[in-house]
Amino acid sequence: MAERKQYYLFANWKLHPARLAEARMLAGIAKKRANRCTQVLTVICPPAIFLAELAARYSSHRLSFGAQDCFFEERGAFTGEIAAQMITDVRGQYVLLGHSERRALGETDETVAKKLRAALAAGLTVVLCIGERERDEEGRYLAFLEGELRTALAGLSRQKLGKLIVAYEPIWAIGKGAESAMSAHEVHETSLFIRKVLRERYGEKAAFAVPILYGGSVAPENAATLVRDGEVQGLLVGHKSLDPRAFGEIMATLDASL
Fold it and tell me: Residues 101, 148, 169, 239: which is the catalytic one?
């Protein structure tokens, strides 16, 4: 029998919850449900101020923690920033970089590239977020995605790809109902395009070793289809990750159907 794959389920809590007590509650529930899974690794990315305590108290063989962003310098006069090494020192293992909400605040592709190199140097696994604001019939959005990907990976060696995950989040599909998510067919087409860009730079074997996630209006009713038929290796979930019932259903659905 062929060995079953491992799939990733990332929770981006964004600027939620408002209180540490609620964060503990959510993490505790997630840990119990994640530990029942055999094929799904769950990663929670809480607000940075909660990361140290949650990672120390709730990390397990099926639940890990990461940050929502990091800076590209190790230290210095950078008020409000968090260095990649600070994340690893509090047991964070992952970091989201290039999220559309960071880009909307002015973050450039070049800045994402600098952050990515710093995070990898610190030993973090990077979830590189890419995604178009709108999808045009002429396919110009593909050139946009390729530009985000190539700029972020400029100068990155093949050896570093083992710590890279690519998350495709079409901006127009984020934060809506399941009916607004991309179809699994569209997800598959886009994942193939991302593989093509990676293959042209790093070769086929390396390109197919990079996990690809989908994010954008993920819900219990579409999670398994998006992963299975979209042929991606996991999901990046936003607001549904703060709903214990819904997030638990997504975990269980993925684990049972893959």
Answer: 169
